[in-house]
């Protein structure tokens, strides 16, 4: 069992944990206990435990799809004195049922209600099943959306009347018909559970079993840390077996217990990792093989990311999700390149989510021809459209207008938004899943609101992966669409101006293989993210501490964001409300009294490309704020001396770490680097700060989360 703090809290009502937003209660997992059920909800997952079946799992839901259902028993079951004992069969005596949330324990008693959130959650049951004392611990880790089972047993009676043990059971839903099994010699067995005839199939010792649903494009992997020896109890009840029946395709592990010769006092254990995932049809098997190839240490190492770390790990996971979709992204980009080359009347355009649109246009390393578009204007072309959260009906209306103009449409959106956008009135030419958290916010606060946006960061990353593949496809057809060079580079404005009305640039650089540019961009981004994480994490904590101290002293905390897509990441449906958004362009120096707006002790965070907002067009914001006696932090690239020289020693500076020129990918035979990383880097830095602010304890107190805006989530 994982180490737990000595402090145990017995919960006798909801007031203990639900009245105040507390730092240790802000996490990617939310636990609710009510009416004989405990429900663990994460960014992408929901898992229900039932008291009526000895606190075993009733269902597992991933991205809105039920993958394991309450069609039978899910925990350990044995035969003892010729009867089934355990879970829904009865006879299991539960001694204790605990929820461990980070460093605190909550014992579930007498149907009492409880709500708590944490970065890492463990659901722990101690019980007696026949001759065994059983500890079942299921860990919901802080570094991903999956589960790790630690099942431990101690023999307390002679096993004379013991028959067999199903250590793990999962009633996998019937749409998951395709499966592979990784065998002890690493060979692959592939089959389908589609007969629904009640037969048992597989019946082998395995390293991993992976199910897949073609309709849902979801897989679920059951991964052991090693190949466990299974029992042969009959011709059907053999080791890992799948019961192919009408209600489900139930997976069992019939463990070799009698074969081991255990005696009273002996202990043994089994471990399992359950990983749901999204995948295109041609990728799920390779993903399953990757899971099976992980080492025991990698597989069962549980890291508990705290605060800013959680957002950093989310971004890495998000990039992995994009990489898994790369074949389908490349396919859509190939089609778009073909349309663009064959039909010169087609332009390029972006619309929808503001961060996506502003990240796509006028960007160093971006497509010169890519501009923000409107269906109200006379334009026809290839449109990349990113659905907006809470505006799905308006988006569909806009998309229909574009379609009626003859536009080709590549539709970006979360899995949930794309599902809502599928109507009889509109069908896109291709869909790209933006791998935001399923609830879009990274954490759920005590009020049940999901906060800390993930959609905008994932949308910007998806945009650049698609752009990379569009450019790569053009090169394979002997064409090169012109790309911007950063206007900070001498001569770039003149270079860019010459290319404004050119469809393809000569000479065409060397062609690149499918997926190559996207992978190179993601590799460059990951390297810069690693540097940001390593070198700036203490600065992130310092900024968050200053912001929290300011609020604790009753002063205001402001934030300004700017620079392409980053200028549109603050006022989103899932913003925490911790920062008060300030737009200095809207402050009229003739009408705005900075002494009334800003007070001594206020705090200002400036997040931008490379600019500190201290010019006439931005209210000379830094000077005005400094005059008022406020403190400031800057999250920017630091290569511009004209900006950095205006800062003072007391200012906090977070260097976002992208280099002069911004674009990060070399294309052999092209005159400039392409594809910028600054947008995703800067957004990640800001949300790491925001995450840190709402999950940091100040002077032994937990900051209360007060949202400045209330957002309607009814149409999600």
Short overview:
This protein is α+β, with helices and mostly antiparallel strands and 716 residues long.
Number of strands: 37
Task: Examine the coordinates and then state which fold CATH places here, giving the name of the CATH topology of the largest domain.
Answer: Beta-galactosidase, Chain A, domain 5
Distance between the termini: 39 Å
Alpha-beta classification: alpha+beta
Strand content: 25-35%
Question: What descriptors fit this protein?
Answer:
Beta-galactosidase, Chain A, domain 5; disordered N terminus; Rossmann fold; 29% strand; 3 domains; disordered C terminus; 25% helix; 6-stranded antiparallel beta sheet; 716 residues; 37 strands; 11-stranded mixed beta sheet; alpha+beta; single chain
Task: Write the topology of this structure.
Blueprint: E1 8-10, H1 15-18, E2 29-34, E3 37-41, E4 45-50, E5 56-62, E6 65-68, E7 77-80, E8 83-85, E9 93-101, E10 104-107, E11 114-118, E12 121-129, E13 132-140, E14 147-155, E15 162-173, E16 178-182, E17 188-192, E18 199-204, E19 208-213, E20 218-223, E21 240-244, E22 248-255, E23 267-278, H2 284-293, H3 296-300, H4 308-324, H5 326-342, E24 347-352, H6 354-360, E25 370-372, E26 381-386, H7 392-404, E27 408-413, H8 415-421, E28 430-433, E29 441-444, E30 450-453, H9 455-476, H10 492-498, H11 516-552, E31 557-561, E32 580-581, H12 594-597, E33 603-607, H13 621-627, E34 631-636, H14 641-644, E35 652-655, E36 663-665, E37 674-676, H15 678-694
Parallel strand pairs: 1-10, 24-25, 24-26, 26-27, 27-28, 31-32, 31-33, 33-34, 34-35
Antiparallel strand pairs: 2-3, 2-11, 3-4, 4-5, 5-6, 7-8, 7-15, 9-10, 9-12, 12-13, 13-14, 14-23, 15-22, 16-17, 16-19, 18-21, 19-20, 20-23, 21-22, 29-30, 36-37
Helix pairs in contact: 4-9, 4-11, 4-15, 5-9, 6-9, 9-11, 9-15, 11-15
